Amino acid sequence: MRNLRLSRQTIQLKMLLRFFPKGNDRRGFTLIELLVAMLISGLIVSGLLYLVVEVLGINQKDASRSDTQRDIQAASDYIARDLRESFYVYGTEIEEDASGNKTLASCLRDYGAGSTEARGTNSQCTGLLQYLPVSLRSNENIPVLAFWKPEPLPEIVKKRCETDADKIGRLSSDPKYDAALDKIPCVAQRMYTLVIYSLSTENPGNIWKGRARIKRYTVPHFTETSTVKNPGWAAPVASDDKRPLSWPFGKADGGIVKLQQSVASGEGVVLTDFVDHKYDLNNVPEAPEDLEAKTPAPTPTSSSGYCPPTFEVANYKKFRPEFYACVRRASINENPEVRFVIKGNAAGRGGIPRNTGEVPFQMESHVIGRAAYSKQRS
To answer: Given 12, 203, 214, 273, which residue has the most CB atoms within 10 angstroms?
Structure first.
């Protein structure tokens, strides 16, 4: 019986020892097997890391595109709100010379000092640029859209009207007459402001990350800090109804108005700095070739497909497909109507190289102003 118990214990011990390697068992991986395993593992890890990097890059590009779209949409909405308050928008007008020949003339150009008198007395467009800051005439800052809009008087001017209310409406022979106060529209409580939007590639010190920017300039009647008329301002209305088209000239001025080239907002306010830009501004081709619409650039006689019928490019002399405005030539009693296009590009934002990256998109808006120039009762 005892032997039987020992044999059973021996059998159990032997079965247990089977699970332990023998002292002389030297089996394992060979060097080739180890290298193959490492290679396969490296490929799998590299593939996974590549996928992670690609996903992160795509997410970053999508975020940059979304941020840029929001910026461009905000700029577009801002311009549209501005335009809805306009009563006159500068566009392309019909010029007629002494012989009766008719041509188109862009109001947003600099006709030069030699033609100032003729532009002020005989022509439809005076050439707005020669009365605006010099920076708006450079190849790096192209005005695209200009218009007049009414705005509330600044608070400092309103307080002046309230303080000297008893002097309003006095005749020049009245002892209480105040010449300075007489030039303030205290009754209307509104003033006229000239607004200019431009496409700018100015980038001193490489501060801006995008390719081009949209800047907003203003020439208001009064600034926020003074009750004295802005020296760069002239009334956009005149008794002969030529203004604002012939601004700053009118019959009462004798065509010799001279303005200081000053802008209340200094160098302009930047709305967005991620507008697309493809060409060197010093060598702009007449017919852009890489646009989706294979049409020539606008000429003085046609909008060439960039604008709807009855519309013309406001500044065809320096047309840029990345930011341009189409203006309908409105006559008396008609509200101004504008279609503008902004082509954004996220190049320069996170994950998208500024010079080689291409994430373009286009937004356009169609706006009708709420006021009308020289509106007559029917």
So the answer is: 214
